[in-house]
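Batch job 17 of 40 flagged for manual review because the log was empty.
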Amino acid sequence: MKKILKNIPLMLIIGLVLSRVILVSCTKEKVPVPVASNAPDPNCPDTIKFSTTITDMMNNNCAGCHGNGGTPPDLTAYASIRDNASSILASMGASGTMPKFASKLADTTVQKFSCWISQGKLNN
């Protein structure tokens, strides 16, 4: 009996801590889950074609250094461009470092590449 009475303060403290955890966790605000949208991106009114727009962009700005046998990644092949699209976009964006020995790419050029990515990186 003395053991039980001795542990009552400890049990009260544990009970208070647990009730606080339960109350706090139940009162947190719910974060809305983003809903996937099939709405077209207003910044991408036209379908960007890999076979013309993207290959021209890569050939004119990237393939000199990142061509077959050059500095990886090879930016003359669809699979390589598709697989590296996010890092390519980051490299050519506002804080990007590419192309290394040329002027920063025009915002419209970067936007077209971004649109191609958002349109599913199609090999069209």
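Reviewer: the log was empty due to a logging misconfiguration, but the result itself is present. The radius of gyration is 28 Å. Unflagging and moving on to job 18.
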